[in-house]
Amino acid sequence: MTSYGQASPAPPGQPRNLVITPGHLCNQWSNEIQKFAPSLRVAVAADPSALGPNPRRVLEPACQANDVVITSLEVVLNIVQIREVLFGLSWRRIVYDECHEVIANTSLEQQGMLEQLARRARNVWAVSGTPFPHHDASMYGIHQLLGVKYKMH
Fold first, then answer.
1. pTM for this structure?
2. Largest pairwise CA distance in the chain
3. Is 16 helix (H, G, I), strand (E, B) or coil?
4. pLDDT tens digit string along 114-148?
5. Smallest Cα–Cα separation from 47: which of 86, 19, 79?
6. Which residues does 10 contact at the CB level (< 8 Å), separation at least 6?
7. How far apart are CA 114 and CA 127, in angstroms?
8. Could you give phi then psi for residue 150, rounded to 5 degrees?
9. How do residues 51-108 score in pLDDT, each as one tens digit?
10. Hey, which residues does 43 pair with through a beta bridge?
11. Which of 121, 67, 66 is CA-nearest to residue 90?
């Protein structure tokens, strides 16, 4: 777990920001936040082994004490204790980075779980710097992730 920043903790109960990104981009997100918003406190939870045998004990306080929590899609999908912590909190914003990968590389069941997590946030962002490989299917999946409802006539 890595934390940065000088700001004092936000008031208790203040929702935080959650970034879910491919594992290889977690440190990049942390570096960019440190560079462009150094007053934000950042926790990176991308390596389950760094969280020890009881990830919940490490992650819960980190989520409460930091403005931004960065984790990988792989961790969210595969580490139950981490997923339980993330689902147990309200979030100001959840950012799904490289969102086309979220859609392309997850099962329908996993996508449904990510949609449920998105409902824990006031705002949900789906971002990507990559063209969508399967335009219509990717867009539909991203709309589902964002909670966009279609009305059929």
1. 0.83
2. 53
3. strand
4. 889 999 999 999 888 877 666 666 676 777 777 77
5. 79
6. 16, 67
7. 15
8. -100, 140
9. 788 888 888 888 888 999 999 988 898 888 888 999 999 999 999 998 877 777 778 8
10. 3, 69
11. 121
